[in-house]
Design brief:
The protein is built from five helices and nine strands; from the N terminus they run βαβαβαβααβββββ. The chain is an alpha/beta fold.
């Protein structure tokens, strides 16, 4: 069993705060092997907020491009333009690679071929890469040691002091949400 590093409960509208904390933690505690990419797998049911979290994290990295789910293309790459006020560890990231493995299921040979076509083994070896994996369970046997962020719906009621209609500012379209999510970060070897 993997040890949980931290647990947060937040509205989707507060994802930028969770993304900032996750980025700070992973940049300060890069995988024990500094000769590989920093990998964060995003685990959660359909609609849990994996892509929305990816959008918030990209925004925290200063990426201005529209971040969409790479479900059909499987992988998208974004150049990270470092900000002057970032920590040295965070400035070491040059590329955000967003992978959605939802469509990658099948036998081992098929998955190995897809990994080869995507050049993921090379991407794993580059310490300047920050790689986000949606639906990582499709590739667990192929992903090196990494951080895992589990996202689930919270059964915690909305605080009465809060506005019951919280604007989700991380989404591309205006959405109203009253749901909270649970975010649990752990390390997977």
């Amino acid at each position: 069993m993997n040890k949980i590093i931290f647990t947060k409960i937040a509205h989707l509208s507060e994802l930028f705060l969770v993304a900032k904390e996750v980025l700070k933690f992973v940049s300060e505690n890069k995988i024990k092997n500094n000769n590989q990419a920093c990998i964060i797998s995003l685990k959660g049911n359909l609609g849990a907020g994996k892509t929305t979290f990816s959008q918030a994290l990209a925004k925290e990295l200063g990426i201005e491009e529209n971040i969409t789910s790479p479900t059909f293309v499987i992988q998208k790459k974004y150049e990270i333009k470092n900000k002057e006020n970032e920590t040295r560890d965070l400035q070491s990231f040059k590329t955000l690679i967003h992978v959605d493995a939802y469509r990658l299921e099948g036998n081992i040979e098929y998955i190995q071929r897809e990994i080869s076509l995507l050049k993921l083994n090379e991407e794993f070896k580059d310490p300047s890469n920050l790689i986000l994996f949606e639906w990582p369970e499709r590739l667990y046997n192929f992903i090196p040691p990494h951080f895992e962020l589990s996202i689930s719906h919270s059964d915690q009621p909305v605080d009465k002091a809060e506005d019951n209609h919280i604007l989700d500012q991380t989404a591309q379209t205006t959405q109203i949400t009253t749901e909270k999510r649970v975010f649990e970060l752990c390390y997977v070897e």
